[in-house]
Structures
1.
Amino acid sequence: MNLALNTRLALGSLLANKLRAVLTMLGIIIGVAAVITLISVGEGVQDVVVSEFQGLGNNLLFVVPGSPDANEFTGDLVRAELTNDDYLALANPSAVPDLVRVAPTYGRPAVVTRGGEEARTTVTGTTPDYTDVRDFYPIEGDFFTEQDVTTAARVAVLGQSVYEQLFPDGTPPVGETIRINNVNFRVIGLMEEKGGSGFNDQDDVVLIPLNTAQRRLFPARRADGEYRVDQILAQVASEERQDAAIVEMALALRESRGIAYRDEEDFTILSQSDVIGALSQITNVLTLFLGLIAGISLLVGGIGIMNIMLVSVTERTREIGLRKAVGAKRRDILWQFLTEAIILASLGGLIGLALGAGGAWLISRFSDLLDARLAWNSVALAILFSAAVGLFFGIYPATRAARLNPIDALRYE
Amino acid sequence: MTARSDEKTPVTATDNGRGAAGRPVIVIRDMTKVYRMGEYEVRALNGVSVDILAGEFVAIMGPSGSGKSTMMNMLGALDKPTSGQYLLDGIDVSDMSDDQLADIRNRKIGFVFQNFNLLPRVPAIQQVELPLIYAAKRERGERARRALEMVGLGERVHHRPSELSGGQQQRVAIARALVNEPAIILADEPTGNLDSKSGTEVMAIFQRLNREQGITILFVTHDPWIARHTRRIITLADGIVVRDEAVPTPLVAGQSKRPSDEALVHE
Ligand SMILES: Nc1ncnc2c1ncn2[C@@H]1O[C@H](COP(=O)(O)OP(=O)(O)OP(=O)(O)O)[C@@H](O)[C@H]1O
Ligand SMILES: [Mg+2]
């Protein structure tokens, strides 16, 4: 008996009991659909995250306060802060020769208004090098200068999203006046569109000189006279120099922060790949978890298939007897029922796949956060797995059918 | 008995037991079949020895429970005897494996059942193709159509069992039995579920297959008048052969009217 015939036979038998076939497949359909949807969404999330971190700029290192080993309970994260001194230590080329440029950021949420328009956004103080570090430039007007920083000038550069909210009429923004937390600022530039989506819209920002932020808007002065910054972005000369740069930076920071030789660092230097790596670790756990759900649902689906195949074998005992009487061998009967189980399971897998892809599509359609992406390896895996489930759970019923003695089977009432 | 077991004529695979009349196609020796039912056992066959020659047309008779069906199942290689020897077409099938027996059933034997045993909802032509599928033969449709024509169902190839009369269903089953050109056709009460007209039609088909194609045919019947359409009647009782006689002038199906049951009984 060849495959085509067995397939036709199996389809015929499944079509003769359509409702039962569908109900039997339900376990596998639901399992595969759920897994495909979730994995697609997961891939979408990962895409967003990766693209955002890559969009931050080239060869970037981030310095954030707190020791890499700190946990929330020791409070290290809260106590450790970065200051202008740390930034100046990193900006010293003789101490850190492998860094090209450095830009600190110090930002807070704020209300920005212009006439009747209002935008709630993040206002970030930084230095002129920010544009090169982030690879993010004004398309209209100019970025602020070193002198603006020194004089704590009240000038601002708008991100596209903020511009659209404050200037719905499309007026050229340069030269206009806006108010940030009720302080007047002159708009001197408009940033290009950077993109990013949903929870991290990179255009939802207003950039102002660092000193203006620290002194005028969001007081950052500590009791010891130092000014706080949130983080420091540093650009490395080239990818190959990254490790060297990290060592130099750590030394410079230890010195500026007065950390003794034996003491632990209270800051962390992260590369973009560190961040992406940490995130993909989270995704890996998620994938494992999804795999577990898939496994369980396929198991349940498989048991359903075994159950119905056993019923089918019993119902068709006389048919099996007759087939054997006219010459069917064990393996003919075995493959007849195995094919049926495999087709049942794979069909369930395919339907589940279609539903899962539909679910993923719907989610991307109605959320602007992410584009759920159907991963082809998960598609192949879903089909292969369901077929394997059919094979595995079909073996027992099919073997039972194949073992039947023709006379007993023909006599079966 | 018309042949002895030691007359072992060499058999060539190609003629499949046909044509060479007088050569034994079935040789059984001291065949027993014991069914174990928990504590006690039933000796359904208690030492049966029979030779059937190629081209014979034989009826098996005997009271209910005498072992007729049991013997047919052994002859049809559907079941294995408890002891004894069985040479089918020169091949010893006494201790073959299940799959080997399946192969023998497929190539050498056509079996017709009292209750037809057709697959539900399947068109006649596909029912008849079934043995060819397991024989991996080509041109299945064409062969099946010819077999259906032989039993007079050339017009009914796409009918399903529910769309056929009992007699027609049995003819589909006969077409299925002969489609793979077997050496013998075995039938266990093929007319048992049919009225006398349909029964006579089945007999006519058997006689024609036997006469024109030389197919060896054995069938079980309770009906003495049906039995007299053959040329030899073997009678079983309590698992042994009690009578084995030739029919001097076999009836020709359709040419003699069936006498009343009473006339048959008081004959
Ligand atoms: N599978 C079985 N298990 C146990 N006993 C059996 C089995 N098959 C047949 N028998 C017994 O073997 C004996 C012969 O049965 P068999 O069916 O061969 O009789 P038969 O001559 O065909 O009868 P009938 O004319 O009623 O069909 C009976 O006593 C029956 O009960
Ligand atoms: Mg019987």
2.
Amino acid sequence: MIHIGDYIEQFINWLTLNFAPFFDAVKVVVESIVNSVEWVLMFPPFYVIIILVAFLAWKRTGWGIMLFTLAGLSLIWGMGYWAETMATLALILSSAFIALLLGIPLGIWAAKNELAGKMIRPMLDLMQTMPAFVYLIPAVLFFGLGKVPGAFATVIFSMPPAVRLTTLGLRQVPKDIVEATRSFGASSRQLLFKVELPLALPTILAGVNQTIMMALSMVVISAMIAAGGLGEVVLKGITQLKIGLGFEGGIAVVILAIILDRITQSFGLKTSAKA
Amino acid sequence: MSKLKIEDLTLLFGHEKEKALTLLKQGKTKAEIFKETGCTVAVKNASFSIKQGEFFVIMGLSGSGKSSLLRCLNRLIEPTSGSVILNKVNITNLDDKGLQKVRRKEMAMVFQNFGLLPHRSVIENVAFGLELQEIPEKERLEKAKSVIDLVGLQGYENQHTASLSGGMQQRVGLARALANDPEILLMDEAFSALDPLIRKQMQDELIDLQEKMHKTIVFITHDLDEAIQLGDRIAIMKDGEIVQIGTPEDILTNPATDYVSSFVEKVDRKSIITAGSLMFDKPTVAIYLKDGIEGTLRKMRTSGLTTLPAVSIDKHFLGFVYLRDVLEIKAQGEKTIKNAIIKDVPVAYADTTVEQMLPFIAENGRVVPVIDKDTHKLIGVVAQTSLLIETTGINWDHGTESPIDKIHKEII
Ligand SMILES: Nc1ncnc2c1ncn2[C@@H]1O[C@H](COP(=O)(O)OP(=O)(O)OP(=O)(O)O)[C@@H](O)[C@H]1O
Ligand SMILES: [Mg+2]
């Protein structure tokens, strides 16, 4: 018998032991990000948030999604899950933000450096195919229970599309444009920021959209380690066999998903239409 | 003065470059080297220099290595061996910063597929090179505006490039290159993607611009007509090798290899070949006040010609004398040929083209005199047969078999 599990366990324990100060620092930072976002979402009265989101939906997409946003968010409020929804939204936005913060530079690196690309790719495959529950174990070991390990698992699970689509977007920049840019004496930095990233932007934004959606799909799983929010509502429905509760939580998640999807998608579409 | 000097430049694509280089030195061909090492010889031992202000055209079929050679000049592709010397500086040795500087200030490039930035407006594209040099926005937009006017893009400043026609897009490409005020313009099939009419127009405009700017231009094309129209000199490439370099006329009149002549045959020679290259420069002439009537008749007899150009003692062209007229004035007892000279005849200068001389053929039995533009001295004559050959485009010298040869082979 080969006990890979033993090695991984030893490795994780070693990490926990030796990097404790590092994990503590990460925990403080992540916690403060999630809490500030949640505070921003919870501080104004609910109708202000509803109006703001509806306005954004109208600006980016049009009447249909705006009406859906108004109705959907009001329903959530009416069902009494406003606080849970905002907690979930804060966790998703923070996790997605961190995932993008790490994922986009990784994607750039993978596109620019062949070796890096070759190493990152199987890691992404692993991250995406590994059942998401597995991430909960090291998350708890590193960070204990609560929002931070939830965010950790969510970041790992939702990062791959950001990396992949950034790499793809950069690789798709036409060779002749890159060549022309170089012929005018662009440094690698100038090439990246003035040409490659702007041209890859629609693809990168598609990655942003996917990352957010993946983060949303982790809501229930991260609730298992006490991340709170709507996931907890659904989880309660499952564990206590309260069908109604489960569905209410589920409906709130779906509403959130549709609004987030349409709004973030519109950014990608608008940019590609312009280009 | 030589602006750009290319010395023994070789470019190989592939892995076993060392081995391929050795084989190349042993004189193996491109095909043999590819078979043995898998390396493509894109450019082979190219050496030439380009003068300040020269319009230098590199011509050759697809795959002959033109683009590769051009890209070695600004090191978009690193040459495998050899050097590129710009104003006495060896570019092949420059570090990244030095190379960046050369690309920003001294050499700018125009591409076949334009290579414009689709997310920027026309003026932002034109100012792009200046932006890379970190020139303040106001200044670079001003400069861009003046170049936009120069290439005829006024009114298009704020359009997106994707909405423009090919010709307009290439104007943007050209303007972007000119905005940097480079000493050297590298143009890779810049007009090949355009419709014939637009293409012709762009060629004419480029010639006009060049008359004002006096840039040094390296222009790539696979079209000999374009090469001839634009180039001060043309280099012809085949399989990575430069097989001939010369003025358009050199190339047309003395193709160095069969490969070159195969191009040359397709060209409309009438508008390129000049009297200077066709003329016979030591014609038999009747010299007024020296030859007299008897002398003239003797020259006609020995040369077998019934018409001679008449010149003064210091070689000024005076007209033609005909045997018939000379005999007639002899009978009248004249001493000089003065009264036999027919001066109402068309003349050509050295740079008069065959096309311009065509009307002269109409008058029978006479050569076309070629005189110096300034001194009006006779410098040679063009035989009508040469003119006819040039206009019909039949030239049995270069490989093609004449029909008479063919008949002889079949019958005799
Ligand atoms: N990146 C590359 N890798 C390998 N071989 C190449 C590469 N680029 C060009 N070649 C080869 O080098 C030779 C010269 O190509 P090049 O593009 O310079 O020709 P060209 O004269 O510009 O042709 P065209 O008129 O088609 O543009 C060709 O045999 C081509 O296949
Ligand atoms: Mg080419």
3.
Amino acid sequence: MMRVPLWYETRLAIEFLREGRSQSLLIILGVALGVAVIVFVLALISGLQDNLVERTLGTQAHIKLRAPDEVVRELRPIDTLAVASQRRNERAQRLRSVQNWQAIAEALEDYPQITAVSPVVTGPAFARRGEAFKSVAILGVDPARYAQIVPVPERMVSGVFRPTATEIVIGVVLADELGVGVGDRVRLEGTDARAGTFQVAGVFRLGVRDLDERFVFLPIRPAQTLLDLPGGITNIDLTIDDIFAAEGLARELDLRYGVTAESWMETSEQLLNALRSQSESTTVIQSFVGISVAFGIASVLAVSVVQRRREIGILRAMGSTSNQVMAVFLIQGGLVGLIGSAFGSSAGLGMVHLFTTLGPRPTEEALFDITAGAGLVLGATLLATLTGIVSAHFPARRAALLDPVAAIRDG
Amino acid sequence: MAEPMDVAQPADTGEPVLRLERVRKCYNVGTPIEVEVLHGIDLEVGPGEFVALVGPSGSGKSTLLNILGLLDRPTDGEVWIAGHATRQLGDVARSRLRGQVLGFVFQFHHLLTAFTALDNIQLPRWAAMGREDDEVRARALELLDAVGMKAFAQRRPKELSGGQQQRVAICRALIHRPPVVLADEPTGNLDTETSAQAFSLLRRFNREFGCAFIIVTHDPKLAEGCDRVIEMVDGHIVQDRAGHAPRLE
Ligand SMILES: Nc1ncnc2c1ncn2[C@@H]1O[C@H](COP(=O)(O)OP(=O)(O)O)[C@@H](O)[C@H]1O
Ligand SMILES: [Mg+2]
């Protein structure tokens, strides 16, 4: 017969747990409850975070590179317009191109952590259609590249995301305000009265009012012409694989390319703070649940050690080492954690399922999408098993150090 | 601490299977209530000897047996078990010796209630081998058969009478054919008839397996049925003689 490590100790642990039926069940239930709460809360919070991140980062680059700041801080494209009307006369400053941007963009392609690189030329303009007149932000992009930064093609209300030399793609709010649709013509007026008339090729809805009201997509060349920035681009948009590495990478790019790199973590500080405090509160919840589960396991096993004093003495008399006795109780802790977390994760996943199908939904259009992955379940199971073993440590030590003579005599 | 590689069954060389040399035992050492309960005991037990240990309550019989069984350490002196000096041994080596060279029978049979009779008997071997073994199982069944309990193999202790439980405990002590079996008042909890049966069982295994037995008993009739009677009083061996009853050969 094959020798299985810890076979003897495991056999004893299982029989002891089986014999102490109601005690074992109770503590397994306790562990299950704790794990269910943890799985549910974690799934909920991570779902919420994914949702928030998706909504925020779904419409912006993770990192934006632009020409380094001069004495007067250059405005970000969206802000540009917000302030443009008030400070039109102050804006003597021209848009500045990122120096040597082709080489930089090419170099960025080689970073394994950078998943998309899109040069953008952006600046303020006006859109005119008959009497209607709106201030907008022109974005000159390579549509295929830009789609990797913001998935505009997936957000089309009508038409297609295919700006050309004569065609533009605009937001749904702007389209409404100008009273235009696909096929209609819009006149764009850029820097120094440079202007052109374009046909609307498509209308998008990104879900952020500001963007749906102001963004006008063109190819790079006509945008350069309108903004009087021949051959130049104002920024390079990046997406990366680990969004929380954005700030670090931005600082690195700053130094290496002599540009100003701004990560989403800087621009969306509030979101980041929200995510952080959510993570902190889940950690607190997890710790409290974990600690109470650990105490539960430890106290039930401590009682079991007292109850089994005499049997432990007998095991020692029959040649079990104190390490073997210790292992019996450690394994009991581990088993309780393992079995409890198996039930607990199932219950937690069930709760998540109920919540997503029956629970409240923040908005009608965006269903709160929660996915409790296998990783979460596996992690919870592993953690609970480990917690079981660790919390069994003190009772197990007591069992191991029992004086067999006293244990057998007193029972 | 040094651990013996493997504790083989000792060859029958006539060497004592147990030897105590000036064994003293004190309790509560270093406190005002320190007491010495064994005062320099010297003792040898040869292979296959069938020894009764008698004496008034509190004379130190259990203490002596626990020291012989490596369940307790003497304050002073040396204990040889099957040729191994044990003073310097650590827990693993002592446990291994217990599991391979010694067998225990206690007054309150002490079976593990979670296991069947058959499994209880196998437990000492499982502890030593770390696995199940067909041969061990077969031998456990043989022993159960020998004590007339084969039909009860799958019963749990709760489903057995006191006498039956003690018979299972005796089987457990003998599963590895230890050179020495230590029994502390093995019949103390049984009625006269049952205790006589249990005692004759010990005698039978002594003859069949050649195990030495040291049996603490208060029953003079049982004691006199042994080959050798050792009497203790107040932590001293006061008498060491042959049993009076003629041996049934
Ligand atoms: N753990 C202990 N602490 C203090 N005294 C003890 C302890 N164990 C036994 N004794 C004392 O040692 C003496 C011998 O006890 P024991 O060996 O149990 O005697 P017996 O088995 O012959 O009745 C008794 O006086 C008893 O009170
Ligand atoms: Mg006693």
4.
Amino acid sequence: MKRFEKFTMKTAALFLGVFAFGSTVLAQGNPTLSDAEVASAAVTANQIDIDFAAIAREKSKDTQVLEFARTMANDHQAVIDQAVALTEKLSVTPKDNAVSQQLKADAEKTKEQLRAKSGKAFDKAYIDNEVAYHTSVIAAVKDLLIPETENAELKDLLMSVVPALEAHLEHAKMIQQKMSKK
Amino acid sequence: MSMHKVLFPCALLLLTGFSTLQERPASKTHRVEIVQMKFSPSSLSVRPGDTVLFVNLDMVTHDVTEASGKSWKSPPLAAKGSWKKVAKTSASYYCSFHPVMKGTITVK
Ligand SMILES: [Cu+2]
């Protein structure tokens, strides 16, 4: 539980929402998320970070923040492309579900908060959120999506996404530290 | 000019020329894979004139940028993309898209 201390309340809520959903269903002892639902949650989680990046590219004037946002948009799009290609190959249609919906609902609130800010305050809010969001997505992918996945190729894809998410998290923390020194 | 005065330097030149040729090993190509957000191997020892081939095995785009940012830089390497460089001097490098990814080439 110690890892939660670093979370903002909002992302803690996001992660807890996802996690609570997972454990509720697990507690029922039923098959939980289908692969179609895992695929939907994975695509949604990536799309959300592309949306955050789009707001940053619209609002920020900081080169470092803009470059980070461009990397986020490109990398998360590459993951979506891979996931879509795989679901097509496997004839799986991503299926909306409670995890995807929770992710979207939380993202809408975050986007609203980001849009309300500008200048340095925006840059800080965007990077802080990137740190929090990647932290919670890494946890959700590792602790919920990967264990829920049946298909080996989908599982491999999710596992190969984790190092990218971790590199993004470290990159965001690096920018966060530089900002705090300014 | 006596014969041996001409022959001696010639022979010397031939000998040194040959030995230089023989001592210099053929230049090699070393492969650095970019996989799971890491350069592998992240530190590489090469001889001057060796080629280093970088191959991106990840799904995301990477590059190879000399650490000062002023000396050399690969173009963006998309998935399955590769780029090679002849090593002349030692260098530290990183990925400009993911600055947490780092590596070194030692030329000796
Ligand atoms: Cu990279």
